[in-house]
Automatic annotation (TrEMBL):
GO cellular component, one term: mitochondrial large ribosomal subunit
Database matches in NCBIfam families: PRK09256.1
PANTHER family associated with the record: LARGE RIBOSOMAL SUBUNIT PROTEIN ML62, PEPTIDE CHAIN RELEASE FACTOR
Transmembrane segments: none
Protein name: Large ribosomal subunit protein mL62
Family annotation (SUPFAM superfamilies): Peptidyl-tRNA hydrolase domain-like (SSF110916)
Listed GO MF terms: peptidyl-tRNA hydrolase activity; translation release factor activity, codon nonspecific
EC number: 3.1.1.29
Length: 201
């Protein structure tokens, strides 16, 4: 070894001893000041799926079991360049409401009542999303739409106040008066036409 190599080796060894780390090529590779280890020193880079335990008291916790619903991907329309032709980004999410054991009977009944237009003849609730050019973001959007629909079934309609009931009654009476007034005007117009025809003969 030449002199420069020996000096570099000594510097590296002294740095390693100070940090009490093992000698490896990875330990001496370049690391940016903005690397993940510096930004988040207490975190781990190992990905894991958290275990979810639903709350038994809540009617709907927001958890949707992906193995209980059917998810299909297809080509999305509209602009997007070559990515639209290569990647199936449009998401079609469906499940049969009657056999959805992960929803309570109350939610299933209200879901069928409120979302009749999204149901097919077989009883499947269909949700589509092609909001973005990303498959994952469209799936997240479709799941959020489903959560919003389910939460809408749990919202109790507010009890109308006496003032609003009176206002509604007055509006109905006013609409009935206007309808009868228009009907009377049309009747008078027809009678006047008929009378003029009789006079000419």
């Amino acid at each position: 070894m030449n002199f420069i190599t020996r000096q570099c080796w000594r510097i590296l060894q002294s740095g390693v001893r100070g940090q009490k780390t093992s000698l490896s090529c990875r330990a001496y590779s370049f690391k940016s000041a903005l690397c993940l280890e510096n930004l988040y020193p207490g975190s781990t880079l190992k990905l894991h799926t958290p275990t979810f335990v639903p709350d038994p008291k809540a009617k709907f916790s927001g958890y949707i079991p992906l193995d209980k619903i059917q998810i299909t991907y297809s080509a999305s329309g509209g602009p997007g360049g070559q990515n639209v032709n290569c990647v199936n980004t449009k998401v079609d999410l469906r499940f049969q409401v009657a056999s959805a054991s992960w929803l309570s009977e109350e939610i299933r009944t209200k879901l069928v009542e409120q979302q009749k237009n999204r149901m097919n003849k077989e009883g499947y609730l269909i949700i589509k999303s092609d909001l973005t050019r990303s498959q994952h973001l469209n799936l997240a959007d479709a799941l959020e739409k489903l959560r919003t629909m389910i939460r809408a079934t749990l919202v109790l309609p507010p009890k109308p106040s006496p003032e609003s009931e009176e206002r509604k009654r007055k509006n109905l009476l006013k609409a009935a008066r206007e309808r009868l007034h228009e009907k009377r005007k049309r009747s008078e117009l027809k009678q006047s036409r008929h009378a003029s025809v009789v006079d000419l003969n």
